[in-house]
Amino acid sequence: MALRALVGVKRVIDYAVKIRVKPDKTGVVTDGVKHSMNPFCEIAIEEAVRLKEKKIVSEIIAVSCGPQQCQETIRTALAMGADRGIHVDVSGKDYESLGPFQVSKILAALAKKENVNLVLLGKQAIDDDCNQTGQMTAAQLDWPQGTFASEVKVEGEKLKVVREIDGGLETISIKLPAVVTADLRLNEPRYATLPNIMKAKKKKLETVKPSDLGVTLASQVQILSVEEPPQRQAGVKVQTTEDLVAKLKEVGRI
Amino acid sequence: MEMAHPLRGEVVQLYKNLLYLGREYPKGAHYFRDRLKKAFMKNRDVKDPEKLKELIARGEFVIKELEALYYLRKYRAMKQRYYEEDENK
């Protein structure tokens, strides 16, 4: 059975950027900050491309939800080997409140519309660390899910997924169509090289609105405050054992 | 005017590819670009096709090295952030 894969790619602040919280505590500074594809989404794309190279997957559709700039993220996915892209245009207030629930509704609607039988996602994004989109998408579609995948094998009408769980690995067999979310050790994503980025510009990228898919973006979540983790206290140097004992007593350690 | 060298296109493409990769270089794109330019300028007078092919191959090798470097850097950062317990075992 030839599979058709839908892969979600999220545009996030680059992993190497030092995150700064906005003074009014409503979120983090994103203006003028380098963005790139969520590393776990890269792994998801890579897995789809490898399945295509093995002739198991026939078409890979890369999708990203967000503002215009998401198209760059989709281009990266296309450069890595996806066949075409769908940009779900979400901006302004809707983008600020866009969370796993809204994205899962979009992905589920697209999975049906594009008639795919495999949805591949990163297990979580490095910006909000939600780890919910894959699970919610599976629920919306009422499909089985293989989350935290460190190995994926197609066996006829089924998928064998090795999952990373606490203290070890779990191997499950799930029926297709299914949703799979990628863990860190699933594969080593290839680099989107300049020649491939250029070639990717010729690939089809369509833009749709959530309303075109019959999805409303109302959010039930209100962000009350975003704060930096507490600063690490500076250490002190002591000259003698007596000083050390005194200091430890001072901070109540002994 | 002398005719363009038949391998000129390849060299220019190699330079562009490296320049693109350099945008992500840990020490900064400027640092990378200066050294990249120096390395290419050093060999500007090379005309021998054999020697040129050798130099292009070296450039391709550097590309592979950079891709591996970026991959490992990202992988380590992810591992450290999300799988800290594994390291202590």
UniProtKB/TrEMBL annotation, chain A:
Pfam families to which the protein is assigned, alphabetical: ETF
PROSITE patterns in the cross-refs: ETF_BETA
Top-rank taxon: Eukaryota
Record localization: Mitochondrion matrix
UniProt keyword annotations, A-Z: Electron transport, Mitochondrion, Transport
Gene Ontology BP annotations: amino acid catabolic process; fatty acid beta-oxidation using acyl-CoA dehydrogenase
Gene Ontology MF annotations: electron transfer activity
Main location per the UniProt record: mitochondrion
CDD domains for this protein: ETF_beta
Electron transfer flavoprotein alpha/beta-subunit N-terminal domain segment(s): 25-217
GO CC terms, sorted: electron transfer flavoprotein complex; mitochondrial matrix
Keyword field contains Mitochondrion: yes
Family the UniProt entry places it in: Belongs to the ETF beta-subunit/FixA family.
Subunit structure of this chain's protein: Heterodimer of an alpha and a beta subunit. Heterodimer composed of ETFA and ETFB. Identified in a complex that contains ETFA, ETFB and ETFRF1. Interacts with ACADM.
Function summary: The electron transfer flavoprotein serves as a specific electron acceptor for several dehydrogenases, including five acyl-CoA dehydrogenases, glutaryl-CoA and sarcosine dehydrogenase. It transfers the electrons to the main mitochondrial respiratory chain via ETF-ubiquinone oxidoreductase (ETF dehydrogenase). Heterodimeric electron transfer flavoprotein that accepts electrons from several mitochondrial dehydrogenases, including acyl-CoA dehydrogenases, glutaryl-CoA and sarcosine dehydrogenase. It transfers the electrons to the main mitochondrial respiratory chain via ETF-ubiquinone oxidoreductase. Required for normal mitochondrial fatty acid oxidation and normal amino acid metabolism. ETFB binds an AMP molecule that probably has a purely structural role.
Identification of the protein by name: Electron transfer flavoprotein subunit beta
Species this protein is from: Geotrypetes seraphini (Gaboon caecilian)
Gene this chain is encoded by: ETFB
UniProtKB/TrEMBL annotation, chain B:
GO cellular component entries: mitochondrion
InterPro entries assigned to the protein according to its UniProt record, in alphabetical order: Complex1_LYR_dom, Complex1_LYR_ETFRF1_LYRM5, ETFRF1
Domain Complex 1 LYR protein: 10-63
Transmembrane stretches, start-end: none
Superkingdom of this protein's organism: Eukaryota
One biological process term in Gene Ontology: negative regulation of oxidative phosphorylation
Similarity comment: Belongs to the complex I LYR family.
Protein name: Electron transfer flavoprotein regulatory factor 1
Species this protein is from: Geotrypetes seraphini (Gaboon caecilian)
Classification lineage: Eukaryota, Metazoa, Chordata, Craniata, Vertebrata
